[in-house]
Amino acid sequence: MTTNVTTVPAYAAPAANAPLERTTVPRRPVGEHDVLIEIKYAGICHSDIHQATNGWGEGIFPMVPGHEIAGIVAEVGPGVTKFQVGDRVGVGCFVDSCRECEYCLRGLEQYCVTGGTGTYNALDKNGEPTYGGYSTHIVVDENYTLRIPEGIGLDEAAPLLCAGITLYSPLAHWQAGPGKKVAIVGFGGLGHMGVKIAHALGAEVTVLSQSLKKQEDALKLGADHYYATSDPETFTALRGTFDLVISTVSAPLDFSAYLSLVKTDGALVNVGAPEEPVKVNLFSLIGGRKTLAGSMIGGIAETQEMLDFCAEHGLGAEIELISADRINEAYERVVASDVRYRFVIDTATI
Known about the structure:
Layout: E1 7-12, E2 21-26, E3 34-43, H1 46-52, E4 69-76, E5 88-91, E6 94-96, H2 102-105, E7 117-118, E8 137-141, E9 146-147, H3 154-157, H4 163-173, E10 181-185, H5 189-201, E11 204-209, H6 215-220, E12 225-228, H7 232-237, E13 242-247, H8 255-259, E14 262-270, H9 283-286, E15 291-294, H10 300-313, E16 319-322, H11 327-335, E17 342-346
Parallel strand pairs: 10-11, 10-13, 11-12, 13-14, 14-15, 16-17
Antiparallel strand pairs: 1-2, 3-4, 3-8, 3-17, 4-5, 5-9, 6-7
């Protein structure tokens, strides 16, 4: 592919709730500071489904989801200094930001005051829609492109660009490590990476999941303990136990119940994004000076830090590799929690 080619094969949702289908989408010419990435693998995140079904608000259609992108640099613009052809690279949840606000200047581009530019389901600075990773190529500014270190397969690295950083960022911010007790609520695409990363950071890790069916997997991946939240005794036995609880689930929880598990001065951090509002009894916060917080992915520097950390510790996602013609089936299975633990599309099949 060269800069003269402006369309690439992709899988897109033509309308909200419509099955994804093969199509083509435009890609801008490679600019001064752009890299053209030949996408090798694209993870399927639950947020792809939320957006393709208008669960988080009205989307931009046709929509090409995908913000867990791993591939190889195929071309670079004349001003690019960070990458060269052949480099292993990744793209996460955003491809631009204002670059001027206090958060962008602090390396917290995910909290850009303009909201930044999503990898898909967004409009770029020229007012053109962005299209994500369920495609064969993408053009991205070098400053929003990540280097994937050797030591992680590109297929296992793709989910790190969302699932990995979504858990790494709060674990790092709330200083998970030796001497800290951390609970991960939910053991899916996000949760299994939370367990791996928290364990590698040296924390004592507990998984809180609806049932015991994933217990063996969780312990194998680094959990020290595992409890079923469907058992009321769990909340009695673990009351006041954890320094940090991270909820990865995208359904409303009884936050007062989960706050009861947090120590005084501890935190319950939500990285899941339910479509419905949630309620919380403020007495569950007041008694114990507890924090109920949220966290959203990470900035470019922190995402690179996460990738380097995962490579150093041999951490990749647990994946099920699929062909592109199985995307709609995969969506159904994600909604049914029937995946261990991340679907990844082999984009050579698009």
